[in-house]
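Colleagues,

For the teaching module next term, I've prepared a clean inverse folding example: a structure given as tokens, and then the sequence designed for it. I'd like students to try predicting residues themselves before seeing the answer, so please don't circulate the second half yet.
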């Protein structure tokens, strides 16, 4: 199944993010400590949360590849969404820790200026994270993985955070040391904001939120089919990278089972052409049995 193949391919992006974040977090925390930069240390802590988030994505991708069983007839595709939810809680915790540390430094400031090397570390980190973002975004588009795309956007935000960190350090070195601490505070806010965005998206998917524009597109496609007399109901939900579409239609009641089945097949293929990850379940009902007249369209596809 293509979806399982895509999930396995998506692991490459998760592994790349994990390795990159481990190296950068250790490097930033070390240089930030010895280079007297609160902002760089906050950026390093930000990357530690990204390690956890990336591991959560990897675990989610792994669990999602498990085949359907007696307790999970639709498979385990929502595991990556649950993992994202857990990661958001961890990120919020670390973000709060960064804010507390920044406030303490504002109340009890030090006179030590950051070392120049911390600027280069921030800029190099920004360049690396932007390169990782480009790779993961292209991978997400190729394998159609919402989890990998979310990780890519997180990579991009980390690149911007590192650029902001460099700006704060420069300001501190030229005589405005409070800017370094303020930058650390802003980084803490960014961590929490990113976590809240991930939380909201995970909750939206877990509560069966769905793209209403895509449903409208599906409705328009099905309504244009001559054999469909009426669309009684149409619903959708996201199941990991898979879309589950439920649609109830009314057709000529005089059609036999084979003709009705052919109509269902056509609808499924039409919706799949809109999104290859869509799995459609079609329920057919008779339409106005007292007045209906069989037309040529009912027998010609």
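(Answer key — instructors only)
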């Amino acid at each position: 199944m293509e979806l399982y193949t895509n999930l396995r391919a998506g692991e490459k992006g998760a592994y790349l993010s994990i390795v990159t974040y481990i190296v950068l977090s250790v490097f930033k925390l070390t240089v930030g400590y010895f280079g007297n930069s609160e902002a760089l240390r906050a950026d390093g802590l930000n990357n530690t949360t990204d390690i956890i988030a990336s591991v959560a994505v990897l675990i989610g991708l792994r669990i999602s590849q498990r085949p359907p069983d007696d307790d999970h007839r639709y498979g385990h595709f929502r595991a990556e969404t649950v993992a994202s939810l857990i990661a958001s809680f961890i990120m919020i915790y670390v973000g709060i820790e960064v804010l507390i540390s920044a406030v303490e430094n504002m109340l009890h400031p030090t006179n030590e200026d950051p070392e120049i090397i911390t600027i280069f570390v921030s800029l190099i980190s920004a360049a690396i994270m932007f390169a990782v973002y480009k790779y993961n975004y292209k991978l997400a588009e190729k394998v159609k993985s919402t989890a990998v795309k979310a990780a890519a956007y997180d990579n991009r935000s980390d690149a911007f955070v590192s650029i902001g960190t460099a700006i704060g350090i420069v300001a501190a070195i030229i005589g405005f040391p409070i800017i370094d601490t303020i930058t650390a505070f802003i980084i803490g806010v960014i961590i929490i904001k990113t976590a809240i965005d991930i939380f909201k998206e995970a909750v939206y998917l877990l509560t069966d939120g769905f793209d209403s524009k895509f449903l409208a597109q599906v409705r328009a496609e099905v309504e244009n089919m001559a054999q469909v007399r009426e669309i009684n109901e149409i619903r959708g939900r996201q199941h990991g990278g898979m879309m589950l579409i439920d649609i109830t239609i009314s057709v000529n009641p005089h059609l036999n089972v084979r003709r009705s089945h052919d109509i269902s097949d056509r609808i499924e293929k039409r919706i799949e052409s809109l999104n290859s990850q869509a799995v459609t379940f079609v329920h057919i009902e008779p339409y106005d049995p007292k007045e209906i007249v069989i037309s040529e369209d009912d027998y010609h596809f």
